[in-house]
């Protein structure tokens, strides 16, 4: 299985349960990190204004943050390269550098 090119999701789910580790999270983080930017010409529908507070879900997990900061610390990529390649907002990256330095 280790050398196989692909692995059935049912088999992977069994391994996740056996090892008590979420291998699907690695794949989903990879998809989030390397997803193409949204279409600028996309017309979105306006949602009705609500009086309730709006909360934004954090899509960046600790593993993604650590991965990006490790590349910057080792000199593999510069801050501007990370911002450009992964679409991380500049302010977010600098907050991470302050918080996790």
Q: Could you walk me through the main structural features you see in this protein, from its secondary elements to its overall organization?
A:
The protein has 101 residues and is an all-alpha fold. The chain has two domains: 7-35, no CATH class; 60-101. 52% of the residues lie in helices and 0% in strands. It is built from five helices and no strands. The longest helix is centred in the last third of the chain and has 13 residues, at 62-74. The chain is extended and about 45 Å long. The termini are far apart.
List the helices and strands and how they pair.
Blueprint: H1 9-19, H2 23-33, H3 62-74, H4 79-86, H5 90-99
InterPro entries: Homeodomain-like_sf
Protein name: DNA invertase Pin-like site-specific DNA recombinase
Organism: Chryseobacterium defluvii
Overall SS class = mainly alpha
Average pLDDT score = 82
Helix content: 40-55%
Question: N- to C-terminal separation?
Answer: 39 Å
Q: Count the DSSP helices.
A: 5
Quaternary structure type = single chain
Poorly predicted parts: none
Number of DSSP strands?
A: 0
Strand content: under 5%
Largest sheet: none
Coarse shape? extended
InterPro entries: Homeodomain-like_sf
Protein name: DNA invertase Pin-like site-specific DNA recombinase
Organism: Chryseobacterium defluvii
């Amino acid at each position: 299985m280790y050398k196989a090119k692909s692995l059935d999701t049912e088999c992977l789910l069994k391994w996740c349960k056996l090892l008590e580790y979420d291998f699907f999270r690695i794949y989903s983080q990879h998809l989030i990190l390397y997803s193409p930017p949204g279409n600028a010409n996309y017309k979105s529908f306006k949602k009705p204004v609500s009086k309730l507070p709006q909360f934004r879900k954090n899509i960046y997990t600790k593993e993604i943050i650590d991965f990006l900061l490790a590349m910057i610390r080792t000199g593999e990529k510069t801050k501007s390269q990370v911002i450009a390649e992964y679409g991380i907002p500049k302010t977010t990256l600098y907050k991470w550098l302050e918080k996790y330095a």
